[in-house]
Amino acid sequence: MKPLFLGFGNAANVILKELEGYIQDFYYFDEKNVTSSKGKKLEKFFIPDDCSFVVECASVEAVKEYYRDIIISNKDFYILSTGAFADENFRNDFFRFIENSTSKIYIPSGAIGGIDVINAIKKYIEKVVLRTRKPPKAFSRDDKEKMLIFSGDSIEAIKRFPKNTNVSVTLALSVGDFRKVHVEIYSDPKVEKNIHEVEVVSSVGNYKFIFSNNPSNNPKTSLLAPLSLAALIKKNFENVKIGG
Question: Does 166 appear as a known binding residue?
């Protein structure tokens, strides 16, 4: 494998470490002019012919700026910054554009799990609720007790909290309906970690998942997010695939 990393910060290095033994070499491009003793740095963004696939771990803006070049190249595209799909116009343009390409798009489960269950029962789902609890400082607040600061569908949650969109967007993409995902966001001084609770109600059964993620070196991204992307890459290159 010889991937191209779009963005080469903490997340990219986590992914690289997880893919030791899978990757022979790699390219990387970072607008912040990051340098590394490993890999081949691109001074300008382009898709090398011998690139195996592209891994985005930069930003929502990077997804929007470079997705056409990547899709035109017919390279598979792994996207960590799923918040890009919160933009309905971009989302529609992206999925129209992909129709004429052989590229496959891979979106990891990110900071949560249970996506395999949701994919399996998608057409039977009646309701999905995402409850997120974070310390008050995550919202620039100083609450002394737990406060519900938002309750509404994922579309409105994305508008109100654009910096906290990846989890709700990934859920909504999996469900296939942004309005079917109800979001509750709490400012809670009793928690030190970001906690996500996903509740699924369906005619197949009812399910609840709770994720309490330890902080990573990058406060904007949980450690689980790049780990889930690395696992997705490995799964696509293994002969035995377990789980949805």
Answer: yes
pLDDT digits (tens, 9 = 90+) for 183-231: 999 999 999 888 999 999 999 999 999 999 886 766 566 889 999 999 9
**pLDDT at position 220, please?**
63
The pTM for the full model equals 0.91
Q: Which residues of 163-173 are buried (b: 16+ CB within 10 A; e: fewer)?
A: ebbbbbbbbbb
CATH superfamily of 115-213: Dihydrodipicolinate Reductase; domain 2 (3.30.360.10)
* Radius of gyration of the CA atoms of the chain, in A: 18
Of 177 and 26, which is predicted with more confidence? 26
Inform me whether the pLDDT recorded for 179 exceeds 90: no
Active site residues: 196
Q: How far apart are CA 22 and CA 106, in angstroms?
A: 18
* Superfamily of the domain at 4-110+224-236: NAD(P)-binding Rossmann-like Domain (3.40.50.720)
- 121 phi/psi in degrees, rounded to 5: -115, 20
Cα 75 from Cα 58, distance rounded (Å): 18
